Every structure is written in C-alpha cells, then in structure tokens.
Amino acid sequence: MTQAAEQMSAKVSPYLALLDELHQEIPAMSRSVNTGVWGGNDSDGEPTYLDDQGKVISSKSLSTKAKELLADYKMVQYDMCVGKNYLMDMGFMDVPQK
C-alpha cells in the first residue's frame, strides 16, 4: 500500500507507515496456528520470520530496530483487538489530509 502511495505522491496513515517500516526490517512473518508445523519454531509457538529471500530468520538475530518495531506492532494489534481502540480515537489509522 505504501509503495503505491509513494508512486502517486500520496500520504499514508501512521499505521501504514509502521507496517511499511516493519516490512523493511522483516519482509514476512507468520504465526503457525498448529505450532510446530512450519518454519523451524517447532514447539514454542513463536512467529516465523522470513527474509526477502524466503529464508527463516531467527528472532535472536533480528536487529534492535526490528525488535522495537515488532514491539510497537504488538501494542497496536493489542489495542485494535482487545484494547480500547485508543489509537483509532487518536487518528492513527487516518490518512493525513495535508
């Protein structure tokens, strides 16, 4: 989404900017519902992270920036799913008008 916005010189919401920045650090991630089926995180239930070549990235080898962005992303997801939607009320999902 942010790539399309960049091509059109359009603005993005802070939420989409966070997702884009996270994607730059961790191109793909997945949490296996069956824990232990995909990616090498057999029984710990941890997400599987992939680099831009599709290779599994160990959570221990993530950069400090990637870990910080993941922590931010988790807080945003918590607020959206079970929290009180503070970010929505603050306009975090809104595209700036100017």
Keywords:
98 residues; 3-stranded antiparallel beta sheet; mainly alpha
What features would you describe in this structure?
The protein has 98 residues and is mainly alpha-helical. 41% of the residues lie in helices and 8% in strands. The protein contains 4 helices and 3 strands. The protein has a 3-stranded antiparallel sheet, with no helix packed on it. Strand 2 and strand 3 form a beta hairpin. Helix 2 packs across helix 3. The longest helix is centred in the last third of the chain and has 18 residues. It is globular. The two termini are 18 Å apart. The mean pLDDT is 84.
Strand arrangement, major sheet: 1-2-3
Global Rg: 15 Å
Task: Name the beta content range.
Answer: 5-15%
Distance between the termini: 18 Å
The main pleated sheet reads as: 3 strands, antiparallel
Number of strands: 3
User: Helix-strand pattern, N to C?
Assistant: HHEEEHH
What is the mean pLDDT? Answer: 84
Topology, pairings included?
Layout: H1 2-7, H2 14-25, E1 28-30, E2 48-50, E3 56-57, H3 64-81, H4 86-89
Antiparallel strand pairs: 1-2, 2-3
Helix pairs in contact: 2-3
What's a quick, concise take on this entry?
The chain is mainly alpha-helical. It has helices spanning 2-7, 14-25, 64-81, 86-89; strands at 28-30, 48-50, 56-57.
